[in-house]
């Protein structure tokens, strides 16, 4: 492999240091900045790494990660988070500071102001690790990347800030590593910060695009350089306003496919009814699908989004035993819990159903009979694990042991989470019943199997066509192909249980369908419960595009088993076109665990006092798209305070306040200059990229486009200073009007783009700016929707700062040890004849009402106290918002409407 770097390029420091540390054999070539690396690229792309297969890596962080991983080391989630922070936050701030100092000639202290916040964050984080390095262990790739980002500003170690002790010690330690010293000296060459002057002068802009994270490669959706034609076209589209814009689709009930329309059916994996979903479950399916569904509606596509609880199987039976209820009562109870959680997270299902319905039985049995008639089912006697102590055959998820393939010691009875291979429970080494921990015995039982080998040819033909045309995530493609590559085997579709869909075949009437045959059919039966015209969605593959959302462990059942059943039924079923799978979201440094009280679960998020939209934003910001990611309280606080409060919220609030303060609440006249037209074109380019990314269901990357627009807006306001112009000449006042008008229209566009991610915040912005309903359709055009003379409403801050004390308190609360344990897989004493005591829902509800009444009273007194002391308005507004949230919670607990009654306007006499 060959590493190519250019003189004076600050990014060269990190890749050279990484090469020295972890890729000693790399061939290093040095070029002038203007030299092209790859002939077909219009712009130079340095540094670059040419791999042995001829491909190139151009992203510096990706090159560093490649060296690190190639040396046999493992890159942790925390390391990935640091590198993403460096790419999104630290690097743009460093380049801006370097540019201000070296090119603009600002004093060093003044130039470094833009990076102080990042350095303080580094110092505080290093103080917490109490380690020489960022990850509380050995040197990581994150240490090198972050160090190299800051190094150009501190080539002289004596200039390091004395007050940031932990940062100073860490920086000095990295700087003294031989490989890092050599890398820095080869770029700086004794010239200090001036070594980077030529690079900065020739770069297109002082700020690097924050959306380019460490994991991105060359991307066909990346924004291109703006041409004069682009700018002219954007300006023309702006001037037309909503004149040629399409109007929002009028809702129809029920939603049915329409001839000639783009008909989108979206499913998110059906959650097990026996537990409470945690944040990883929510981002892995329902929230990701919700973003895409909301986006599709904004594009005026005919969209149906459905989900429901998966209610059959051993897990439900066991939970019922634990709580002393019947399986149906458990399903009713937890279906209501799931429904309430998704309502709070503002998940916009068109229909949320369940699988314990007559439609489920009818459709599942029909598909079964069609497979039976076409000879796609086999009968065989199988050996199963039976727990003599629990007196039952063990369902796959209730037996655990050592994987026969990779030796992972927590493999389940159906699949190993580590290697992903399918397992028959009897193949497990050292199996244990997860309920009582006893060793089960092997017993024989007669079962029915889906003949997957017989269906393999038609499945392969369908996959070849679908994978070439549909948007499948890379992990979904890999998992599916590995299943096919390893060869398909007959798959058992029945179980020795009572709680499930009955098998309609003589000799098997004492059995039920296995959950992974039965559960996906729930997608069909849920639509059948929504409308008796369900076949227009499910037997209409020519007109319907089907999107499945799930975590990666669900992939084979949606990409192989369920499609095989539908293809084998030969009834013109709609089969998945686009399979969207996430990796796993972990909690801090470990996994979510209800039994150990580790992590935030859906019913707990509301109790934190953090609004649902903040949860939505952060989960989508760290969505595990390409690799596992982790929820971090510190990072949640950082993203809320920097991206939402200081970036997005600051821009929208300033734009609206300027209209009120300078123009009496009316959007002023606008006369666009060339710089305004360029900004309009930049925003249009971000909008175009946003659409491209979301069409490919790259949800996390598309969110960056929203934040980029608000960054453009903040910079635009800062450079043009309308608060000064408004006090000047008539021309300057006109300039203030143009800047304010463009800015408030950017805020209006953001209110539309934000709807899939933060629907409540988006609605608030639209209420404040009185954005016309007709603007709520997304195209690639950035139009002036708030014309001159448009009256806006009252403007107030959108976000509240999260304080460190608040976050530390929540970290401790959800860090484990505060719960007694309620995991049915571990806690249930299945053999006991006395059912476990259940919580009285009436008593529990009354106690919650009393607690909330006290909280409302206490918060009300606090607000009155602040008002009497004439505290700052922003502080009072924040506490009033908390009071209103508590009142809504109280209303819900009392069974009342959470919305306050309409108030009559008070006229002054």
Automatic annotation (TrEMBL):
It catalyses: tRNA(Met) + L-methionine + ATP = L-methionyl-tRNA(Met) + AMP + diphosphate. Keywords: Aminoacyl-tRNA synthetase, ATP-binding, Cytoplasm, Ligase, Nucleotide-binding, Protein biosynthesis, RNA-binding. GO terms for molecular function: ATP binding; methionine-tRNA ligase activity; RNA binding. Its EC number is 6.1.1.10. SUPFAM superfamilies: Anticodon-binding domain of a subclass of class I aminoacyl-tRNA synthetases, GST C-terminal domain-like, Methionyl-tRNA synthetase (MetRS), Zn-domain, Nucleotidylyl transferase, S15/NS1 RNA-binding domain. Residues 848-904 form the WHEP-TRS domain. GO terms for cellular component: aminoacyl-tRNA synthetase multienzyme complex; cytosol. Transmembrane segments: none annotated. GO terms for biological process: methionyl-tRNA aminoacylation. Its main location: cytoplasm. Residues 72-196 form the GST C-terminal domain. It comes from the Eukaryota. InterPro entries: aa-tRNA-synth_I_CS, Anticodon_Met, Glutathione-S-Trfase_C-like, Glutathione-S-Trfase_C_sf, GST_C, MARS_N, Met-tRNA_ligase_1, Met-tRNA_synth. It is found in: Cytoplasm. HAMAP family: Met_tRNA_synth_type1. Belongs to the class-I aminoacyl-tRNA synthetase family. This is Methionine--tRNA ligase, cytoplasmic. It comes from Leptobrachium leishanense (Leishan spiny toad).
């Amino acid at each position: 492999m060959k590493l190519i770097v250019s003189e004076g390029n600050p990014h060269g420091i990190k890749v050279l240091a990484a090469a020295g540390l972890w890729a000693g054999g790399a061939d290093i070539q040095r070029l002038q900045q203007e030299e092209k690396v790859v002939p077909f690229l219009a712009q130079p792309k340095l540094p670059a790494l040419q791999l042995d297969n001829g491909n190139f890596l151009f992203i510096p962080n990706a090159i560093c990660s490649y060296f690190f991983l190639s040396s046999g080391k493992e890159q942790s989630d925390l390391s990935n988070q640091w590198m993403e922070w460096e790419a999104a936050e630290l690097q743009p701030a460093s380049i801006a500071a370097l540019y201000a100092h070296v090119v603009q000639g600002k004093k060093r202290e003044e130039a470094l102001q833009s990076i102080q916040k990042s350095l303080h964050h580094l110092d505080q984080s290093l103080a917490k690790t109490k380690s020489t390095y960022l990850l509380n262990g050995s040197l990581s790739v994150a240490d090198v990347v972050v160090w190299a980002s800051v190094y150009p500003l501190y080539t002289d170690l004596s200039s390091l800030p004395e007050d940031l002790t932990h940062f100073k010690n860490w920086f000095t330690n990295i700087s003294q590593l031989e490989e890092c010293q050599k890398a820095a000296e080869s770029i700086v060459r004794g010239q200090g910060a001036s070594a980077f002057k030529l690079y900065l002068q020739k770069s297109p802009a002082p700020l690097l695009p924050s959306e380019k994270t460490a994991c991105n490669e060359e991307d066909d959706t990346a924004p291109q350089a703006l041409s004069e034609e682009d700018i002219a076209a954007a300006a023309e589209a702006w001037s037309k306003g909503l004149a040629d814009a399409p109007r929002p689709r009028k809702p129809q009930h029920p939603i049915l496919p329409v001839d000639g329309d783009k008909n989108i059916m979206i499913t998110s994996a059906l959650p097990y009814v026996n537990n409470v979903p945690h944040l990883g479950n929510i981002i892995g399916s329902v929230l990701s699908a919700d973003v895409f569904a909301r986006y599709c509606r904004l594009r005026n596509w005919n969209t149906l989004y459905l989900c429901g609880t998966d209610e059959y199987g051993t897990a439900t039976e066991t939970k019922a035993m634990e709580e002393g209820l019947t399986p149906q009562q458990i399903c009713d109870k937890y279906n209501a819990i799931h429904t309430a959680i998704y309502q709070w997270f503002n998940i916009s299902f068109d229909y949320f159903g369940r699988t314990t319905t007559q439609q489920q039985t009818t459709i599942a049995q029909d598909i079964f009979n069609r497979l039976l008639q076409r000879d796609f089912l086999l009968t065989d006697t199988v050996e199963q694990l039976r727990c003599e102590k629990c007196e039952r055959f063990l369902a796959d998820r209730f037996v655990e042991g050592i994987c026969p393939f990779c030796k992972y010691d927590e493999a389940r009875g159906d699949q190993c989470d580590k290697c992903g291979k399918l397992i028959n429970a009897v193949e497990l080494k050292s199996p244990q019943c997860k309920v009582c921990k006893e060793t089960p015995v092997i017993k024989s039982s007669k079962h029915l199997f889906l003949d997957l080998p017989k269906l393999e040819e038609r499945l392969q033909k369908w996959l070849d066509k679908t994978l070439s045309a549909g948007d499948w995530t890379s992990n979904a493609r890999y998992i599916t192909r590995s299943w096919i590559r390893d060869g398909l085997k007959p798959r058992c579709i029945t179980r020795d249980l009572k709680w499930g869909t009955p098998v309609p075949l003589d000799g098997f009437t004492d059995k039920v369908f296995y959950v992974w045959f039965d559960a996906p059919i729930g997608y069909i039966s849920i639509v059948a419960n929504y409308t008796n015209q369900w076949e227009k969605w499910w037997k209409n593959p020519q007109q319907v595009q089907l999107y499945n959302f799930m975590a990666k462990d669900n992939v084979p059942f949606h990409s192989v088993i369920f499609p095989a059943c539908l293809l084998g039924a030969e009834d013109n079923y709609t089969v998945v076109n686009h399979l969207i799978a996430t990796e796993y979201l972990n909690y801090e440094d470990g996994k979510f665990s209800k039994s150990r009280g580790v992590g935030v679960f859906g019913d707990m998020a509301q109790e934190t006092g953090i609004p649902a939209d903040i949860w939505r934003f952060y989960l989508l910001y760290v969505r595990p798209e390409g690799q596992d990611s982790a929820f971090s309280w510190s990072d949640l606080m950082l993203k809320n305070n920097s991206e939402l409060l200081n970036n997005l919220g600051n821009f929208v609030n300033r734009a609206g306040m300027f209209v009120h303060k300078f123009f009496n609440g009316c959007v002023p006249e606008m006369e666009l200059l060339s710089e305004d037209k360029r900004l309009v074109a930049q925003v249009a380019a971000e909008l175009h990229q946003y659409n491209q990314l979301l069409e490919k269901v790259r949800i996390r990357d598309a969110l960056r486009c929203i934040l980029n627009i608000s960054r453009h807006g903040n910079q635009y306001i800062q450079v043009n200073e309308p608060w000064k112009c408004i006090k000047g000449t008539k021309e300057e006042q006109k300039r203030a009007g143009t800047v304010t008008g463009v800015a408030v229209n950017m805020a209006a566009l953001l209110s539309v783009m934000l709807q899939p991610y933060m629907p409540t915040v988006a609605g608030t912005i639209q209420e404040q700016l009185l954005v016309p309903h007709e603007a709520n359709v997304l195209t690639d055009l950035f139009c002036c929707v708030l014309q001159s003379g448009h009256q806006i409403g009252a403007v107030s801050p959108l976000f509240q700062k999260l304080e460190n004390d608040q976050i530390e308190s929540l970290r401790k609360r959800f860090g484990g040890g505060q719960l007694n344990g309620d995991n049915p897989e571990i806690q249930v004493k299945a053999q006991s004849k006395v059912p476990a005591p259940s919580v009285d829902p009436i008593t529990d509800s009354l106690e919650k009402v009393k607690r909330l009444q006290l909280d409302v009273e206490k918060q009300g007194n606090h607000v009155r106290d602040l008002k009497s002391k004439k505290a700052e308005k922003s502080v009072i507004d924040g506490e009033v918002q908390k009071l209103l949230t508590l009142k809504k919670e109280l209303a819900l607990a009392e069974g009342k409407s959470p919305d306050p009654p309409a108030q009559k306007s008070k006229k002054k006499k």
